[in-house]
Design goal:
With 94 residues, the chain is of the alpha+beta class. Helices cover 40% and strands 29% of the residues. The protein folds into two domains: 39 residues; 51 residues, HU Protein, Chain A (Irregular). Helix 1 packs across helix 2.
């Protein structure tokens, strides 16, 4: 599901809200999540999972085309750990 599909589904389920309002709410939620992660925080959605940021150290890598050694700088990457309820629903046998 992509962002526009989420907005369309929420709009269909909530006819009393305008499409623009739903789009704004989804945008604000995602922006707050990004801001929290930028500041080194953690975003936890109970039953769904938790987003956090992990630091990756600088390392030496290889250019796959030429085989030359390349230095890869240190960076921060997003990390997601699924919640217990999400894992249970994904692994439930019908």
């Amino acid at each position: 599901m992509i962002k526009s599909e989420l907005i369309a589904k929420l709009a269909a389920e909530n006819p009393h809200l305008t499409h623009r309002d739903i789009e704004r709410v989804v945008g604000v939620i995602l922006e707050r999540m990004i801001t929290a992660l930028e500041q080194g925080g953690r975003v936890e959605l109970r039953g769904f999972g938790a987003f956090s940021v992990r630091a990756r150290p600088a390392r030496s890598g290889r250019n796959p085309r030429t085989g030359d050694a390349v230095s890869v700088p240190a960076k921060h990457v997003p990390f997601f750990k699924s919640g217990k309820e999400l894992r249970a629903r994904l692994n439930a046998e019908d």
